[in-house]
Amino acid sequence: MNPVRLRIRLRGIVQGVGFRPFVHNLARRHGLSGFVLNSSAGLITEVEGDPAELALFRHALSSEAPPLAWIQETETTELPATGEIGFGIRESQAITGEFALISPDVATCAECLRDITDPANRRFGYPFTNCTNCGPRYTIIRDIPYDRPNTTMADFRMCPDCQAEYDDPANRRFHAQPNACQACGPSLSAPLEEARRRLAAGEILAIKGLGGYHLACDARNEAAVHSLRLRKRRSDKPFAVMARSLAAAEGLCEITETDRAALLGPRHPIVILRSRKAWPAVAPGNPTLGVMLPYTPLHHLLFEGAPYDALVMTSGNLSEEPIVVDNVEAVTRLGGVADWFLTHNRDIYMRADDSVVRSFEGRQRVLRRSRGFAPQTLDLGRTVPELLAVGGELKNAFCLTKGRHAILSQHIGDLENYETLVFFLETLANLKKLFRVEPRAIAHDLHPGYLSTRLALEIPGLPKIGVQHHHAHIAGCMLENGLDGEVTGVAFDGTGYGTDGAIWGGEFLVAGYAGFTRRAHIRYAPLAGGDAAIREPWRSALAYVPHLAGVPEQKQRVVRRMVEIGLNTVQTSSCGRLFDAVAALIGLRYEVNFEGQAAIELEAIADPSVETRYDFCLTGEELDFRPAIQSIAASTEPRPVIAARFHNTVADAIVHTCRQIGLPRVCLSGGTFQNMKLLSRTVPALRRAGFTVYLHEKVPPNDGGIALGQAAIAAATAPW
Ligand code: ZN
Ligand code: ZN
Ligand code: FE
After folding, report:
1. Of the residues 151, 162, 209, 463, which has the maximum number of CB atoms within 10 A of its CB?
2. Residue 707: CB atoms within 10 Å
């Protein structure tokens, strides 16, 4: 039969995941000639030979693809046969204006782990071991195509052994760009043994990781954890823990099948798990613990032969600043926190914090989307013009669009200081370059005070699209669930600027991408004191009761007076503030040290066996919880019963209001739905009432997800 030649272009995650050697071996197996190469427009292969073999080749291309690959699009063209002999891997090509998807960083694979723990292997004990199936990607890539000179590995010249692996298509390290060994690759600033000894002795170490520095100490050493808190100026927000192994993690926490898959998967995020015992120093007052497993060879080696089985591993930063990546910066910024530094000479190009997931109904749901997830794109469902959505203020992430791709940045953080703003701008410049995006319009939150809003409005020349905060929450949820048309969107959170100038946060919207109608909301309550009102939940309680036990009367008098004359007072429908009011009313919490703390503690104490609720009423647009609050204020029941009944009340009120609105599809979004007690009560109740319920999975329900919604709304409404 006459030979046929095909040109196949694959797009998706097909670079840096061992795709070229796979194609090479596959072509040989089917006796085909031709070549394969990486380009900035994806992976391109031309294959020539027997038509039957070509058909088998094409089938195997997707059915046998390497584990980390993801083929989004295949484009095949028939070409005249050239009589080419042999199959080769050609130089990468940069094609102007084209872009390729970039793999997120991948946790150390089982084979590399075997290499570093085998005394006979030449990489025994080498902390920068990696292969085409694992290792750093996004955090070291400076430009595409993904080749060594475009990474922070450019300065390391491979030794003959490493070069031989790199050149051998049969080798697991064939074209593994960060390939290295102790003879030629990056090295540590100090021996691992000393790091282990110091950790075991209770010291706090700054350790350079994949996407930034960690601050680490022995999780079981309460004195060490305590001094880390003091030095990091972090009063009682929980710390994440890295456990030696899955078995060690199982000793700390209860782990479901879904959790196990999350812990062991290629992303290795922090997984929120139910603790088996209390951790007063690591996670005060919290029944859960954020746990991850070692995800770089350095982490694995830190546990090798060490007496500890769990380390606190928290982002190397001060309070709410971005994670430190630079070695010099590390010494100046972390010098007052760490007793000692374990660093290395492989540069981090892009910062990325550890991601956080939590499982619900058998799915891992992202709460902080960063290392291992970014810069993987989400499908917009159709091609849209190039856009920038700048996101919100807290837990900021922004979103760019390119073709059908929504490129959601890694978690940037709270845009409240200069360092975080710089991180935002650096990441924006980098993602625009990597994905070749030149935005034609900018979407932003309506809140005039957000740094992100001001930033967007200062960019000259481009159309600006203001998007209401809760509309963005719901549009993001719709987009990731592939929904169109109109849904009932329940957006419950702490704060979002409303179209009437009030602070919204307990919203029932009938929403599509192009617009929304506010159909119901939690009844407005006055809130005095701006930011202080968020730090001091007792101020929320005063909207419902005239006096509150546990807070000095003269402070209360000031707040009551402020409300009376409207001084520094806003009207709010915030669900977060409603939780605050309840926490203060039952004397659980009058002041908080981090966002959401009162609600988290209220959830933590709720008695799961309680089925009853309090009264509420829905009058017109107003969902009024005053009857519930009056009952709580007068109640003599134990706090766990009250907390449970309150959660049940909110869940029932959601179902009741969705019934009144009547649409069959309900999207739940906003930070409040990180509350598992509320979620596990609301979702089944909505289903029993006949609704189809949609939740977040790939993007956070908190403000880390709103940039995606802003992008979806801008794409539907921009003046093209
Ligand atoms: Zn590997
Ligand atoms: Zn080497
Ligand atoms: Fe929000």
Report:
1. 209
2. 32
Domain co-membership, 687 together with 710: no
388 pLDDT exceeds 90? yes
**pLDDT beyond 80 at 319:** no
Residue 536 lies in a domain: yes
Is residue 588, in this structure, part of any structural domain at all?
Answer: yes
Using the mean position of ligand 1's atoms as its centre, give its distance from the Cα of residue 579 in Å.
Answer: 46
In tens, the pLDDT along 455-481 reads 999 999 999 999 999 999 999 999 999
Distance 89 CA to ligand 1 centre (A): 21
The answer to whether residues 494 and 545 belong to one domain is yes
Q: What is the pLDDT of residues 287-317, one digit of tens each?
A: 999 999 999 999 999 999 999 999 999 999 8
**Structural domain span for residue 60:** 4-89
Q: Looking at the structure, do residues 457 and 537 belong to the same domain, yes or no?
A: no
| Distance in Å, CA 138 to ligand 1 centroid | 16
Together in a domain, 628 and 579: yes
Distance 147 CA to ligand 2 centre (A): 17
pLDDT at position 211 is: 96
> Are the CB atoms for 261 and 284 separated by under 8 Å?
no
Which ligand has its closest atom nearest to the C-alpha of 707?
3
The mean pLDDT of 82-106, rounded to a whole number, is: 83
Ligand closest to CA 112: 1
48 near 33, Cβ under 8 Å?
Answer: yes
Same-domain pairing of 320 and 433: no
Domain annotation covers residue 100: no
Give 151-155's long-range contacts (Cβ < 8 A, gap of 24+).
151/177, 151/178, 151/349, 152/346, 152/347, 152/348, 152/349, 153/177, 153/178, 153/180, 153/185, 153/186, 153/346
Identify whether the C-beta of residue 181 lies closer than 8 Å to the C-beta of residue 159. Answer: yes
pLDDT-above-70 percentage for the chain = 99
Q: Residue with structure tokens 């993602």?
A: 431
| Residue 334 · residue 213 · CB < 8 Å | yes
Report the SS3 class of residue 605: helix
Kindly identify the ligand whose nearest atom is closest to the C-alpha of 158: 2
**Number of domains into which the chain is organized:** 4
Lowest-confidence pick of 31-40, 85-94, 665-674:
85-94
334 and 383, same domain (yes or no): no
Band (16; pLDDT cuts 50, 70, 90): confident
Confirm whether 436 is domain-assigned.
Answer: yes
Domain final residue pick, 336, 358, 380: 358
Contact 614, 631 (CB under 8 A): yes
The whole-number average pLDDT for the span 562-582 is 96
- The bound ligand whose nearest atom lies closest to the alpha carbon of 134 is 1
Q: Ligand 1 centre and the CA of 207: distance in Å?
A: 21
Q: Residue 381 maps to which CATH number?
A: 3.30.420.360
Question: What backbone torsions phi and psi does residue 149 show, to the nearest 5 degrees?
Answer: -60, -20
Confidence at residue 97, expressed as pLDDT on a 0 to 100 scale: 63
* Tens-place pLDDT, residues 60-72: 999 999 877 888 8
Closest ligand to 297 CA? Answer: 1
**Taking the model in full, what pTM does it have?**
0.92
Among 89, 124, 156, where does a domain finish? 89
Assess whether 517 and 637 both reside in one domain.
Answer: yes
Q: What does the pLDDT look like over 119-133, one tens digit per residue?
A: 999 999 999 999 988
Same domain for 697 and 711 = no
